[in-house]
Amino acid sequence: MRVAVASGKGGTGKTTVAVNLALARGHLQLLDCDVEDPDAALFLHPEIQSVVPVTVTVPRHLPDRCTFCGRCAQLCAYNAIVVLPGQWLLTAELCKDCGGCYLVCPEQALVPSSREIGTLIRGLADHDVEVVTGDLRPGEAMATPMIRRVKKMASDESPVVVDCPPGTACAMVHAVDGADLCLLVTEPTPFGCHDLEQALDVVGAMDVPCAVVINRSDLGDAGVRTLCERRGVPVLLEIPFDRDLAEAYARGQAAVDADGRWLSVFRELWDRLEELAVQRSRDAATR
Amino acid sequence: MKVAISASADSLDANVDPRFGRCASLLIVDTETGEIVGGGRNAFASEGGGAGTQAAQWVIEQGAEAVLTGNLGPNAFQVLRAGKVRCLISVSGSVRDALAAFGRGELREASSNTVPPHSGMG
Ligand code: SF4
Ligand code: SF4
């Protein structure tokens, strides 16, 4: 089973839920696809096993050969190249590495070159949790290739928890894609409700079933619960604000390690996710 | 001088569209006569990616010396700067008023992009 843990915006406790879910179940893999801010490892303290650079291939321009004819720019379907008189400009994050520009250039003025966008870190944490972290370089815009690289590491044998980037942009969609279930973490505030609704729309369109965790559930209003009821989305867990938990979090300690009570709470959450996934595949079979 | 303006429709009375690459209309206006001399519905708005750089390249090809818009992403800004086009940002209100403010030198010139990449995307 692959569970994507996502949220319509940052700061809802998404990583907390992903980490505690992974530790409570144990013997699984956690893919940290929140590549701009990968902090699951801060709570899991894995023993690092490997660190490898992640690169993408983009064209390098040889100005001495170029006649600025503009053919490469015309050909590039992804608008990655702009040619102005005497200038050749690449928007590297738009390049999909199709290879077309190298072929169309009559002067051989473009050559493939690799560009490092970040690192892929693999480690092993307690409870037999394998942690794979995609760490994008600061300021690097190519989140999607990095997420794809992290997801390539997904295990076929053990369950997988994916910590997704916050928001509902392309990066989140790529991270959620392929999951059996998407667990959306939200707060019961009007803003939380608005972001959750957007996330439900986006994930729903991908045909991935959703379930909700309400964090800081004792603050705010009933909007999120009403929304979930209206959309037929199960609320699997409500986590009230807890001072001890917040302090453990600040120390970089996971809730399940700080207090055994949380261990059973998150184990139960996992069981309910499994039930949902089974039910879903049964529904799909009879459809 | 020709300037390019991102607008919500093909009219001097339309509002300035805060988005550059994904604006509704991209207008070329002659500041001497105050008339629209080119442009129209922004065909780049529907591009999957690179709307900003495509619009920027088009603006340069039209011979515009300045762009008046709300926000500019880094990629479009890079292309406009390479084309030596002045970038006037945080522009709002009607196209007509924006042109007048430009004439009086009241608009703010961007020294860097104002929004992160892909901001105008849905
Ligand atoms: S096709 Fe080659 S020669 Fe022409 S502009 Fe591109 S890089 Fe330069
Ligand atoms: S490799 Fe393909 S996508 Fe990349 S710049 Fe060249 S033509 Fe565009």
Walk me through what this model shows.
The complex is a heterodimer of chains A (287) and B (122). With 287 residues, chain A is of the alpha/beta class. Chain A is 38% helix and 27% strand. In chain A, a hairpin with a 3-residue loop joins strand 6 and strand 7. Chain A starts with a strand and ends with a helix. By secondary structure, chain B is an alpha/beta fold. Chain B has one domain (2-109): Nucleotidyltransferase, domain 5 (2-Layer Sandwich), CATH 3.30.420.130. Chain B has three helices and six strands. Chain B has a six-stranded mixed beta sheet with strand order 3-2-1-4-5-6, sandwiched between helices. Chain B starts with a strand and ends in a 13-residue tail after the last strand. The chains are: A alpha/beta (287), B alpha/beta (122). The A-B interface holds A 73, 78-80, 82, 84, 87, 89, 91, 93-94, 141, 169-170 and B 47-51, 53-54, 56-57, 60, 75, 78-79, 82-83, 117-118, 121. The complex binds iron/sulfur cluster (SF4) (2 copies). One iron/sulfur cluster (SF4) binds next to helix 4 of chain A. One iron/sulfur cluster binds at residues 66-72, 83, 88, 105, 107, 109-110 of chain A.
